Amino acid sequence: MKKVEISVIIPAFNEEQNIKAGVLEKVYRYLKRQEYIWEVLIVDDESKDETAELAKVFAKSHRGFKVLKEPHRGKGGTVIAGMLAAAGEIILFTDMDQATPLDQLEKFFPKFDEGYEGVIGSRSGRKGAPILRKLMAFGFAVLRTIVLRLPYKDTQCGFKAFRVGAAKKIFSKMKVFREERQIKGASVTAGFDLEMLYIARKLGYKVAEVPVAWSHQETKRVNPLKDSWEGLRDLLKVRINAFQGKYKT
Question: What residues does the Glycosyltransferase 2-like domain cover (predicted)?
Fold first, then answer.
């Protein structure tokens, strides 16, 4: 059996509407045209609607698609589960709504060829996003620069890929969003990307940032006050963990 070259992780919580709108079919149509061997892991975050059932039906009729059912932990814990379960040499996680289309992965390959262990997407200006979302992003960018010294323009884009060796080490070391974490309701877990990128830097991995296409997709999961508070809380948790030496190799 040939080795999987690209794994695509798609976290899913109450994504019935997007699945019915055909996003998985778009992902499949793109991937089936590629020459590399691929797999898609749809990781269900204990959805309350028909997400898991619809995903299973789709996977049965589309080779290369698999569904993982996980306890509800928010996007962070769901992505961790998918990244650790993936078999590909390069592992990408992307949002179900495909705000960044899957074909943007092609922009990542040159960076991997140059020797980078990770490549992250960067959205320029967040065109189409409400002003409140832009203000939240700006404030969070200032805080992450001050507290964690991360050198990236956009840490929150939900389109990131790592070589398998780096992925397994990074995601197995995550503390704030460890697999056992349980939550209630929808959660965008803003600090998840910060902890991941901070660990990558602590481990010495080279991570490139590449501009990608992005279109704003309206979602009910964003709660400005709740998400801002959780983002600040998780940011401080990462800093405290670092002071305590929890991310050392």
Answer: 7-171
